[in-house]
Amino acid sequence: MLIPFGDTVGFVLVSLLVGCQNPWLGLEVLLVCLVIDQVTDNAIAPRLLGELVGLNPVWILLSLLLGAKLAGILGVFVAVPLAGTVKYVLDEVKAARDENRTKDDLVSGSSD
């Protein structure tokens, strides 16, 4: 999301406009929009992003929170790609280590 608060501003404006005609309907529109926004931002988006980057949604949320804490808005933009890069490097290191263990097992097994 390019403007992180844009959807909330839109919800509030629409709710105010509807609320001018019917206050209860305006409140209902605001609540429904906020629930949909929260479900989208906290459940659906991390899963989709996790599938694209290959990270668990929990790690996506943690990386976003850590990025925001350490570097503000720039940290939020950089957090997920950086977390994906770290995961990729760790996977490659693990694969290389496993490959070396397999080679060592073959070498030690063939010399008997």
Supply the helix-strand structural class.
mainly alpha
* Subunit arrangement of the protein: single chain
Shape: elongated
Find the count of extended strands (DSSP E, 2+ residues).
0
Rg on CA atoms, Å: 23 Å
Average pLDDT reading: 86
Helix run count: 3
Largest sheet: none
Would you mind describing this structure in some detail?
By secondary structure, this protein is mostly helical. It folds into two domains: 1-53; 55-112. It contains three helices and no strands. The longest helix is centred in the last third of the chain and has 54 residues, at 57-110. It is elongated. The model has no long low-confidence stretch (mean pLDDT 86).
Keywords:
0% strand, elongated, 2 domains, mainly alpha, 112 residues
Write the SSE topology.
Elements: H1 6-21, H2 23-53, H3 57-110
Helix pairs in contact: 1-2, 2-3
In short:
The protein has 112 residues and is mainly α.
